[in-house]
Amino acid sequence: MLPTKKEVEKAYKRVKPFVHNTPVLKSSFINELSGAEIFFKCENFQKMGAFKMRGATNAILELSKENRQAGVVTHSSGNFAQALSLSAKNLGVKAFIVMPKTAPKVKKEAVLGYNGIVFESESTTESRRLEAERIQTETGATFIHPSNSKDVILGNATAAVELLKKHPNLDALITPVGGGGLVAGTALAAEFFGVNCKTFGGEPFAADDAFRSLQTGEIAFNKTTNTIADGLKTHLGDINFPIIKKLVSEIIRVEEEEIVAAMKLIYERLKIVVEPSSAVAFAALLRNKKAFQNKKVGIILSGGNVDLANLPF
Amino acid sequence: MLPTKKEVEKAYKRVKPFVHNTPVLKSSFINELSGAEIFFKCENFQKMGAFKMRGATNAILELSKENRQAGVVTHSSGNFAQALSLSAKNLGVKAFIVMPKTAPKVKKEAVLGYNGIVFESESTTESRRLEAERIQTETGATFIHPSNSKDVILGNATAAVELLKKHPNLDALITPVGGGGLVAGTALAAEFFGVNCKTFGGEPFAADDAFRSLQTGEIAFNKTTNTIADGLKTHLGDINFPIIKKLVSEIIRVEEEEIVAAMKLIYERLKIVVEPSSAVAFAALLRNKKAFQNKKVGIILSGGNVDLANLPF
Known about the structure:
2 copies of one chain form a homodimer. By secondary structure, the first copy, chain A, is of the alpha/beta class. The first copy, chain A, has 13 helices and 10 strands. In chain A, the strands form 2 sheets. The first copy, chain A, has a 6-stranded mixed beta sheet, with helices on both faces. In chain A, helix 8 crosses helix 9. Chain A is globular and about 55 Å long. The interface of A and B includes residues 45 and 272 of A.
């Protein structure tokens, strides 16, 4: 059973007071270059710098009073760790964050900056899961998965809902695909708030598990993930995959050079800071220019948390 | 005689259809850090990437039909060269741009990309001036100075007018100071559209001609200009200086490290691309935190044309 329009609408109203209605940017140069009319939804300007704030906020707001008192727990070394910490802080809830010992210091500090309580694990999936389970048992905290959670998906949907309320006639939406929580939420928004609006995912060839999952109908995994788009290394889950299977038109794969070129264009022409994962959706459009010719296309720029000392251009 | 409120209003209505009403960004992190409430007016998102588009557009729109047919000419290797080229292109006018032979290739290409007609000169002020005069004589084109022109100043004023229309209760406005055209225009906007709104200029210690000009009452020049803020190396002129003398409260000088630190904060927290000159106004506020404590401050982020391969952090 897919989530309903009513559920998406409720999530939109629920998170609205706690997140930014982020700006939508356009560039005549980029439109000429691509042949499409592109509406960039700037979730890099979202609180803590990524769309993940929406899903995290919605998930916490959906908890009962008792559950809020016990706190929330997740395992993430990326944007969701910061998003859960900040939305928990904003709502007066404790957030326990399991991060691998090997996670960069700057990421731990960002979580601590938002009052997240960091627990270190080994870097294996198994070790992270076990540590999160231990915390759940000891504290009664609720586990919130970064992407494979209905409440997180519904929260993520609200970026595209905002975009479609402003520009109702978009022909297509494109998002990057990592764990699948953003593309699933966006596809729900397109289905319920768009007019014949199709949803596409952009994915690196170097971590094309979602592409393969749609081909075989079974969730696929990545053996290696040598991509600059470090937010897109994870795989789909049993909650978001059925939505993706039903509502996403196509996953478009892109080369690493295409990601870097798209990222550079965004910096040069939109004058904004985005992380490599965000550029993947734009790279997907540029690779498939013909398919989007003369179309109105919304691109969700997922986030802007990037190491500025190591830009790839 | 200062320009009048009516003249600023007319310039605002005149350029409005031809420029972006650029977004205003805020950051709770930056507000906490500074103790002020800061409204960043994002002229880096302006057409061709800088506020200069406003002054150039206004100056061309003020020309008679005959003068428009003969074209416009300026000498600039920076943003004004691009601004005059693009606004001339948009209005069906020819733009002759005198650039020193030594100007970076990328800057010449940017001008050519906007249909500007480039003439090369030696890099001395004298050689640039003579070449511009030659073009005027031969083509009948009207010379438009990048900063020391009433029409350019009135056009530049419109960025602050937009900001004050949105946020009428600002206590202060800060801009970077190079040739003086932006700070003069902004001071006019503050005087006519603000409520006790003071105007400040930010300037590098390494090119503090405006600071010295205000001290002595005579236009001062820079012997050396070793600053990263390459848009701020020029000096004031006889048209903008009287406005600055009358209406600008103070020129705040900043060190190079302060410019880089302010620039980094803008990239990291606002997630936008600005050129070093833009960061100078913000650096001025951070250096003088006490003076702006609990004030509402508008900062004009002047532009976003920067060599991304050589960011200073």
